[in-house]
Amino acid sequence: MKKTLEILKILFMIFVIIEIVIAFYSVFAGVIFSIGSDVNVIYSIIVCFFAANYFIYENLSQIIILFYKGFILYPLIYLQAFIIIFFIILFFKLRKKFNNKLAFTYSVIPVIIIFALYNYFFRTIPDYSSKTHERIVTLSDYKKYQQGYCLEENRILPKDELYKRVVIDHFVKQQEYKKIYTKIRYNKTCECGYYIHKDINLANYKDYLRKNVYSKEYVNYDELEPVDYTNYIVVKNNIAGFTKPIISFDKGVIFYTDIAFDFQDDTYGIYKLFLLDEFDEREDKEKEYKYRLRVFNHEFLSYEADIKKKRSYRRKFDNCGYSNLNPEKQAKESLEEINFK
Question: What pTM did the predictor assign?
Answer without folding.
Answer: 0.68
